[in-house]
Amino acid sequence: MPMRLKVCCIASREEAALAIRYGASAVGLVSAMPSGPGPIDEALIAEIAAAVPPPVATFLLTCATSAAAIIDQVQRCRPSTVQLVDAVAPGVYAELRLAIPATRLVQVIHVQDESSVAEAVEASRHADALLLDSGNPKLAVKELGGTGRAHDWRLSRCIVEAVGVPVFLAGGLNPGNVREAMATVRPFGIDVCSGLRSEGRLDEAKLAAFSAQVLAA
Fold it and tell me: Most buried of the four, 123, 166, 180, 192, by CB within 10 Å?
């Protein structure tokens, strides 16, 4: 099965088209966050999501944790997938399934230590997929993605082996380390944001180099 490539922090229809041209099967659209790069206005998220051709997936990244707030955001932005970058209560998943049944649910796990494996196993019982990142939601100002840091890929490999849903790997990936990351973790897909950007823009040369590494796997 080919490795899936998700290019995150997309900021325009042109960036989405560029990512798709280089093999992205999903694009990430970042809504308001407490910190980190890439947030864009919800009106622009909706515009980009509407312009992306199927079967390319559109991921809305949200830091909302209540079902009502997530549902409202999804209904405004109309993505195919909602990426929950912070932990939510178990009952939230059930409410989302009822209100937005066509929207896939991806739960982010910020891999920090061995406890992240148990957290991932529990989340996998509710979400359609997991995404392993390197944030720190315990800080006063939460880091929920886009840190540019890698985490312990051995723990990520344990999570891949322990759960029964697809797993995306994110966190500090770039053209120079992505092959090692894929070989170590063996994820379903790769997610990248800051490793492909220069001066705030999606860098075509970096994208081309990264895509070549991912698609060759």
Answer: 192
pLDDT of residue 35: 84
- Residue 141: its pLDDT value, please? 87
**Residue given tokens 């973790």 in the structure block:** 185
Cβ neighbours of residue 39 closer than 8 Å, sequence gap 6 or more:
30, 31, 32, 33
- Superfamily of domain 4-194 in CATH is Aldolase class I (3.20.20.70)
Domains of the chain: which residue ranges?
A: 4-194
172-204 per-position pLDDT tens digit: 999 999 999 999 999 999 999 989 999 889 999
On average, the pLDDT of the chain sits at: 95
> What residue has token string 């990351």?
181
Element (H, E) at 60: strand 57-62
Structure tokens at 105: 């649910």
Handedness of CA 107, 109, 2, 39 (dihedral sign): positive
